[in-house]
Q: What sequence folds into this?
């Protein structure tokens, strides 16, 4: 039997035979002084929990060691706000316990009881947050995978033929496939790309990386221990997802380079007919009981409607369609946009190009993150590779700190009157961010004026900053243009002030068709109801998952499920997948062919979400943002806490559905 402390040879580290391999660690053989040096570089709150679980010693959980965890501002307090005295005591205790563990031969750790685990959790979350315990048990995943279906088809409906289609093999599609496999339900995954990963396969532009801490950006059932950086680069995330698909043993169910063209519901038999097209253009059709869409929001590039765009004689690229062999060296480059992708591309290419002109519509707010490009410290890396379940506790700690995150800082206060900010806490955040901008651009007043936003923090996506953006913009061959673009000509970009900005290459860092959910697939439901016509650009769903008139269609990453200042997209995706699994289990148990969301709960839910979004900076702000659709409604964002979304999706309210 493989134990958690079994040594994993570096040559086979990428060959995951099953998901338990993510938890494998090496036995400890370092000297006392080397252990001490490693612990000096550790994240202490999570390590205290991991070692307390490993040793059963509650001295590691004493009140004077408990991190106070101050509310998040523009930055997070190191070590959860622990005092220097508490840090010193914690390191001394941890070193002592790890030396004793080493001397005992690194025995296989026993898993504490549920009560003991919850006592360790409370050390981090404090006793006043009992309501969070179910969600946190799910995220920790000890002693079991809490998100696994509580039923198996062989037990509840062994004779029933049942097929599920999963559309997309990114994060959500992999999660859906794994849960279906656990439940013994037959499924097929359609993926338009030649490999898994979704947005992390498609976006290979220079500098592409996470802006969510990567331990928190991982699936609850596949918790990677050995991330090389705190905010990992695109190849590492895509590789992780490929490893998950291997370890979950679902790759043989993924049909690569197959694009779904249409989904049409056949009421006469209660089945969906899916039409697909392969890379050769051949079209086939197959019927399914249930569809789970996992196509994401960030998968269809959006080009701006600029006059003359097609007339440009140079090379045009979109950040999400980056050519493998494009050569930018010594050329004049124009970058349209200053959002997340431009913010990563510009510093990555600035030293290669002859001239770089950046066209800005609205500047982003920057969050100070000095370690954004840093490797995880060697001592921390060693601990993650040698202390059983430390990676899980570190992920747990990151999840907890982000559970509400900066949500209180973007709250609208009706009695607050200010030309920019929407509340007192929002103004405090704005002042912190302004101070950070001044440290970056104070020596260039003209640039400072251009990069200072005139909308509230949280009004659109905030970007992590370690100084590379300012360093790039200050270079002599870089120009930041804030005059609006009028048109594109054969040789470059024309702005309204009459200037022509010549370019050899135009990079459109202009985002995605985020408001066009399920685009460009044709989706016809009951009575041939056309989903895109019915939405008419204003996409809505019940808890972001189901839609009246479209039975047995379950969305992940659906309307109003995006968390933007707290948590990560993986959390809401897993919630949606597990909700869909509860619905599928209910259908199999009751022998109903289909379930269709009722109109009344759909309407009530959307009224609550709309009201909630109007009380957040992104709903109140007048600035343009991908958070909003063409009607000006915030159709992307979830305005409440992670716990509230968890509570909505953690059980199936069968009365919300009509059964067919």
A:
């Amino acid at each position: 039997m493989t134990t958690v402390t079994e040594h994993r040879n570096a040559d086979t580290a990428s060959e995951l035979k099953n998901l338990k391999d993510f938890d494998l660690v090496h036995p400890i053989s370092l000297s006392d002084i080397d252990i001490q040096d490693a612990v000096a570089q550790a994240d202490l709150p999570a390590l205290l929990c991991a070692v307390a679980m490993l040793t059963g010693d509650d001295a590691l959980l004493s009140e004077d060691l408990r991190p106070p965890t101050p509310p998040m501002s523009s930055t997070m307090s190191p070590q959860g706000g622990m005092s220097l005295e508490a840090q010193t005591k914690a390191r001394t205790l941890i070193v002592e316990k790890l030396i004793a563990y080493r001397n005992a031969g690194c025995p296989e750790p026993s898993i504490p009881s549920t009560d003991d685990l919850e006592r360790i959790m409370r050390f981090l979350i404090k006793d006043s947050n009992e309501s969070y315990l179910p969600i946190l048990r799910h995220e920790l995943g000890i002693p079991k995978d809490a998100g696994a279906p509580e039923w198996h088809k062989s037990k509840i409906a062994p004779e029933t033929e049942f097929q599920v289609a999963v559309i997309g093999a990114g994060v959500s599609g992999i999660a859906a496939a794994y849960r279906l496999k656990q439940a013994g339900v037959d499924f097929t995954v359609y993926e338009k790309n030649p490999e898994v990963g979704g947005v992390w396969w498609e976006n290979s532009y220079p500098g592409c990386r996470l802006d969510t801490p990567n331990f928190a950006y991982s699936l609850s059932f596949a918790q990677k221990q050995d991330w090389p950086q705190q905010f990992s680069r695109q190849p590492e995330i895509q590789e992780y997802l490929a490893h998950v698909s291997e370890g979950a043993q679902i790759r043989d169910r993924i049909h690569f380079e197959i694009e779904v063209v249409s989904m049409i519901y056949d009421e006469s038999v209660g089945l969906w007919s899916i039409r697909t097209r392969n890379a050769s253009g051949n079209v086939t059709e197959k019927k399914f009981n249930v569809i789970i869409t996992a196509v994401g929001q960030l998968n269809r590039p959006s080009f701006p409607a600029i006059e003359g765009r097609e007339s440009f004689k140079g090379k045009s690229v979109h950040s999400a369609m980056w050519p493998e062999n494009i050569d930018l060296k010594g050329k004049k480059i124009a970058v349209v946009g200053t959002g997340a992708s431009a913010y990563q591309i510009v510093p990555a290419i600035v030293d290669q190009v002859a001239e770089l002109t950046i066209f800005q519509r609205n500047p982003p707010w920057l969050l100070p993150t000095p370690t954004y490009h840093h490797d995880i410290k060697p001592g921390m890396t060693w601990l993650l590779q040698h202390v059983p379940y430390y990676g899980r506790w570190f992920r747990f700690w990151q999840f907890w700190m982000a559970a509400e995150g900066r949500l209180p800082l973007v709250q609208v206060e009706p009695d607050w009157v200010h030309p920019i900010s929407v509340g007192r806490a929002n103004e405090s955040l704005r002042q912190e961010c302004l101070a950070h901008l001044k440290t970056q651009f104070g020596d260039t007043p003209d640039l400072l004026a251009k990069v200072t936003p005139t909308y509230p923090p949280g009004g659109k996506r905030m970007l992590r900053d370690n100084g590379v953006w300012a360093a790039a913009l200050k270079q002599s061959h870089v120009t930041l243009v804030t005059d609006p673009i009028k048109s594109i000509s054969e040789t470059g970009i024309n702005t309204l002030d009459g200037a022509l900005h010549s370019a050899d290459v135009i990079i459109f860092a202009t985002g995605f068709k985020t408001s066009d959910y399920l685009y460009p697939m044709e989706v016809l439901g009951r009575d041939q109801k056309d989903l895109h016509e019915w939405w008419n650009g204003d996409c809505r769903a019940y808890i972001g998952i189901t839609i009246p008139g479209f039975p047995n269609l379950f969305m992940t990453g659906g309307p109003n499920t995006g968390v933007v200042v707290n948590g990560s997209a993986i959390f809401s995706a897993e919630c949606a997948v597990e909700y869909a699994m509860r619905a599928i289990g209910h259908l199999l148990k009751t022998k109903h062919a289909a379930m269709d969301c009722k109109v009344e709960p759909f309407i009530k839910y959307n009224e609550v979400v709309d009201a909630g979004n109007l009380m957040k900076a992104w709903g109140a702000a007048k600035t343009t943002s991908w958070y909003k659709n063409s009607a000006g409604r915030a159709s992307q964002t979830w305005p409440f806490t992670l716990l509230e979304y968890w509570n909505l999706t953690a059980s199936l309210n069968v009365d919300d559905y009509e059964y067919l």
The chain has three domains: 10-122+376-401, 160-300+514-659, 309-365+414-508. Residues 309-365+414-508 form a domain with the FAD/NAD(P)-binding domain fold (CATH 3.50.50.60). The longest strand covers residues 258-266.
